[in-house]
Amino acid sequence: MAHVLVTGAAGGIGRAVAEAFAAGGSTLTLVDVDRERLEAAAKELDAAHVQVDLTGADGPAEAVDRAWESSGPVDVLVNAAGRYPSLDMIDVRAADWDRIFALNTRAPALATAALARRAVAAARPASVVNISSGAALRARPGGGPYAASKAALEMATRAAALELGPHGIRVNAVSPGFVAVDSACNPVAPEYAAAVSANPLGRAGTPADIARAVRWIAGPEAEWITGEVLRVDGGSGTGAGHLPRLWPPDSPSPAPVAPAGPYDTRTSEGPTT
Fold it and tell me: What stretch of H or E contains 5?
């Protein structure tokens, strides 16, 4: 029976991930900074819990070490804790940037390193899943620092996978599309939700959608997968489906332009000079 450590487990995607693993019979250790909600989640899921601030320099390692010592070796680490502030790039200050990166990027990296030290010393395999975001590939107004932190997390995922693979430690990421969660620390305006929830499958994601993907990629069915980012976004990453057609269906298309040859300097607007 696997021992699974989930950060950000008091609510949102982290809570759904914990529920998915609990349904499969895993031993759980839940981590969050919100003591009241964490204790409620732990009681409901019959799980151990560690209340710790992951933005502190020692917080991630403390979470891993306490989980390992109290409930046995950690087989799966899911780094789901994160913050999504609205902050324009023109308003960024050092403290703002550091606060976002401390939780979204540094904490998963430090937790992964702490787990790796324990697992290598014990000669045990392990699996890590980081929760990224579609914002890692597409910036949006007010989301630049968040997008940057998730892009950095995806590279940290690949780097850890490269170095830890020889020790039997897999490191992957799951990148959700828009998922509606009831989160006091990550509020989302209705207008924003409506704008980003369009996708080919026609609905917003749910925490359970992400949790199923996390459980799969962390488990034995994905044992030959590492360093990957699994996009779970209803197809929103395939393109801009909300844009109008290039040419309306009932309009005649323009005459095609013959492609220029390898040495032809002409363009569709006439010869160049």
Answer: strand 3-7
- Dihedral sign (CA 51, 53, 54, 57): negative
Q: Which of 161, 136, 84, 114 is nearest to 5 (CA)?
A: 114
Helix/strand/coil for 111: helix
pLDDT < 50 regions, the chain: 264-273
Each residue's pLDDT tens digit, 107-142: 999 999 999 999 999 999 999 999 999 999 999 999
Q: Could you write out the DSSP letters of every residue in 9-41?
A: TTSHHHHHHHHHHHHTT-EEEEEES-HHHHHHH
Q: In this structure, what token pair is assigned to residue 1?
A: 């029976």
Distances in Å between the Cα of 248 and the Cα atoms of 77, 238, 256 are 49, 21, 16
Task: Check if 192 is active-site.
Answer: no
Under DSSP, the state recorded for 140 is -
